[in-house]
Amino acid sequence: EQEVAEYRKSLAICVSGFDVPRPVKTFEDCGFAPELMRAIAKQGYEKPTTIQCQALPIVLSGRDVIGIAKTGSGKTASFVLPMIVHIMDQPELQKEEGPIGVICAPTRELAHQIFLEAKKFAKAYGIRASAVYGGMSKLDQFKELKAGCEIVVATPGRLIDMLKMKALTMTRATYLVLDEADRMFDLGFEPQIRSIVGQIRPDRQTLLFSATMPRKVEKLAREILSDPVRVTVGEVG
Ligand code: ADP
Ligand code: MG
Fold first, then answer.
1. CA distances from 155 to 117, 188, 196 (A)
2. Is the pLDDT at 6 greater than 80, yes or no?
3. How far apart are CA 45 and CA 39, in angstroms?
4. Ligand 1, residues 36, 42, 76, 112: which to mutate, most atoms within 8 A of Cβ?
């Protein structure tokens, strides 16, 4: 009986916000281009996970989203796939440089995982992704960023270093993701996150993902997201 109760809790879905787009049941429902559909199939993703069903149409509509779901629920694709669409929607003859999509994650390992996932979908379109985190030579990273990219996946500290070194500018950035926001706060990255957010134009789309929503993260979300839709999957502490 307790098992059943636990199971029901893990299935709970709560969506709140105004004018929320309806969830999808399939990747086809998302209206992805054939190249992206092929990349999804190549990953072996047959249908969207629960959080993806809810979050994909909302993120694709351009809304800010707070996504709360436990580890392993497929949060990465729910911001990476719409990011590819967002980038492909940009006017081609843009003179500006620097990333369009900026993803912050708490650790190297997580940033690297997201980077790999982003690359799989970006490849089909020739979209360039760079990983920016400690443990790599700053000079090599500087050179790579100078060469240009549309996506940056970074830990906050190293991204700040690269911004200070003028390895990149945020003038073109319009899609910001804060992944595992609770862990970034636990690791003391709040000042760095605020500094990064402050360098990105306010008319950006902002997505915040977290396994839990402590007060401090809630406060940040209220400050930096506009008219967000909140999607919670499972009972979250
Ligand atoms: P989270 O960020 O919520 O912890 P991830 O995005 O890392 O979860 O995804 C967890 C695992 O599920 C990864 O191995 C990922 O490749 C896989 N995955 C994601 N979406 C799907 C899907 N739609 N179908 C099958 N596997 C998926
Ligand atoms: Mg994740």
1. 16, 12, 11
2. no
3. 9
4. 76
Q: Please give the distance, rounded to the nearest whole angstrom, from the Cα atom of residue 187 to the centre of ligand 1.
A: 24
What mean pLDDT do residues 105-113 have? 98
Cα-to-centroid distance, 78 and ligand 1 (Å): 9
Query: In whole angstroms, how large is the CA radius of gyration of the chain?
Result: 17
The pLDDT value given to residue 232: 94
What DSSP assignment string belongs to 38-84?
HHHHHTT--S--HHHHHHHHHHHTT--EEEE--TTS-HHHHHHHHHH
> Domains, the chain, ranges and CATH?
2-233 (3.40.50.300)
* Mutational test site, ligand 1, from 45, 50, 212, 236, max ligand atoms within 8 Å of CB: 45
Whether 190 and 106 have beta carbons less than 8 Å apart is answered as no
Digit-coded pLDDT (tens) for 14-29: 998 888 999 999 999 9
Cα of 92 from ligand 1 centre, angstroms: 31
The predicted model gives 111-115 an average pLDDT of: 98
pTM for the whole thing? Answer: 0.94
Give the ligand 1 atom nearest the CA of 27.
Answer: 23
Instruction: Please tell me whether the interface predicted TM-score (ipTM) of this complex is above 0.85.
Output: yes
Atom of ligand 1 nearest to the CA of 48: 23
CA dist 47 and 53 (Å) reads 9
| C-beta of 54 in contact with ligand 1 (< 6 A) | no
What does the alpha-carbon distance between residue 175 and residue 204 come to, in Å, rounded to a whole number? 6
